[in-house]
Design goal:
Elements lengths: L3 E7 L10 H14 L2 E7 L12 E4 L4 H24 L3 E5 L1 H6 L2 E4 L2 E4 L6 E5 L5 E12 L2 E11 L1 E5 L7 E5 L9 E2 L1 E3 L2 E4 L10 H12 L11 H14 L2
Parallel strand pairs: 1-2, 1-3, 3-4, 4-14, 5-7
Antiparallel strand pairs: 5-6, 7-10, 8-9, 8-11, 11-12, 13-14
Helix pairs in contact: 1-4
Bound molecules: glutamine.
Length: about 240
């Protein structure tokens, strides 16, 4: 296995609220500290996406306004490539606004935004209050190994899982996909969508390592790091959510 992680960020200038860029920095630092190579590329509006060019494709959160631009581009310009990347086993991580675009559609009032159809979810922008606050969920990425992700959510959209979709996790505190079902996010193998900002990875170093190992094929556990600050960030995020 090559000791190198290649990350491609989709629309990094538009889909990047709540400093989701920190997620990319977290991946870069944890690779660098272990001597694992790291390369970051970007794919902007109108640019073709190379389906073989990265081990991990990343889309951050975004405002409705920016999502309009990205939704069309993702569906019209990048659809085939992102499907091909997922089919060959690349990791896809999408946060909040990016997560909404992974599904079939995002209905914004009378305006339907197309999704890229990588996962069986649909999102509707509800009339009700935005779902905002600290959140913690329980995930089981490997059988029998339950762990907690903690972060922050702020979304107007409500996401429903279709029959073919599995949630990423179970809500322990907070709202999750729709504030009712107790489901948070979606997971289809290595394709993951979540409403969790935080930014997600600096508050959940274990998950950053899972992504690195899964995307590169390096065996887990990856080499240990001095994670005193990361552990404190995780504990604080859990505490903020009341877990
Ligand atoms: N604009 C979307 C919503 O409000 C996503 C927001 C976000 O990425 N935080 O539902």
């Amino acid at each position: 296995m090559p000791e190198r992680l290649r990350v491609c960020a989709l629309y990094p200038d538009l889909m990047n609220i709540y400093a989701d860029r920190g997620n990319l920095l977290m991946l870069q630092r944890r690779c660098a500290w272990r001597g694992i190579g790291f390369a970051l590329t970007a794919s902007h509006l109108g640019e073709a996406l190379d389906p073989d060019g990265a081990d991990l494709y990343y889309i951050g959160g975004g405002q409705d306004r920016d999502q309009r631009l990205c939704a069309r581009d993702l569906a019209e310009v990048k659809r085939d490539a992102i499907h091909a990347a997922a089919d060959r086993g690349a990791v896809v991580l999408a946060v909040c606004g990016g997560y909404q675009l992974l599904g079939h559609s995002y209905q914004l009032g009378s305006e339907p935004l197309p999704g890229v159809g990588l996962v069986d979810v649909t999102t509707v922008r509800a009339e009700g209050p935005r779902l905002i606050g600290n959140i913690a969920i329980e995930v089981e990425l490997a059988p029998g190994r339950r762990r907690v992700l903690a972060g922050f959510e702020n979304h107007g959209g409500r996401t429903q899982l279709g029959p073919a979709a599995q949630p990423l996790g179970r809500v322990l505190a907070g709202h999750g996909n729709d504030g009712r079902t107790g489901h948070e996010g979606v997971r289809r193998g290595r394709v993951i969508g979540t409403y969790m900002h935080g930014p997600l990875l600096p508050k959940n170093a274990w998950f950053a390592d899972w992504l690195i190992a899964t995307a590169t094929g390096l065996p887990e556990p990856l080499g240990a790091l001095d994670d005193e600050l990361e552990a404190a960030a995780h504990a604080q995020a859990r505490q903020a959510a009341g877990i």
